[in-house]
Design goal:
Length: 229
Amino acid sequence: MRSYSVVLALCLAAGSASIDIPAGFTRIFDGKTTRGWHFSGTVHHGTTGIATVTKDGTLQLVQQPFGQGGLFITDKTYKNFELYLEVKVPFATNSGIFLRSTEGGSAYQIELVQGGATGALIGELLRLSQGIPAPDLTNIWKTDEFNAIQVRMEGDAPHVTIWINGVKTGEVQEPRNDQIGGVVGGHIGLQLHWLDTYEPRNVSGGGMSNAMKPGHPLEFRNIAIKELP
């Protein structure tokens, strides 16, 4: 029998949108609607982004107006879990996966920045006691294709493990709970980054003016979770 990581790699290479999620996981994006998700109404990235679902079951996030992003989060909150999803991020576009997020976007975050810190664990509006540095993805990440990310997070002071395309790329035991006010748990979020320009023609590099490519949505699919005790 082939291992899950081998099957995963073969399916991703073939561009399959119907890959099975890992055993024991439950889909939290149904591939047809955005039911169970919403844009935060208070996040600093913006509140007017658009989320649509394509015929092949892909979730697309687009700024509206250009330059105004947002945070697309689950209605439900989670504490201990394993999360699985597949993502396609245009090169140089800035995004992230938020873990245990507040409605306002304070969260542990896995960076998604091709050409930058993809796979790093950082804090978003949260002072992280110990992060995970960006791994070397030279032989792991597939540019401009869907890539599978899986993360396990458990414990009040969380133990976090990250896999990208079936390869373990980072692990850390946080020495304390970094969430504001001692809260433990929160939403799963997908970051639609803001820009420092509202004119697509001004996207030329430097600062936050090139964090989103005009006409290139962020794409996610096969989003699933396994809740842990």
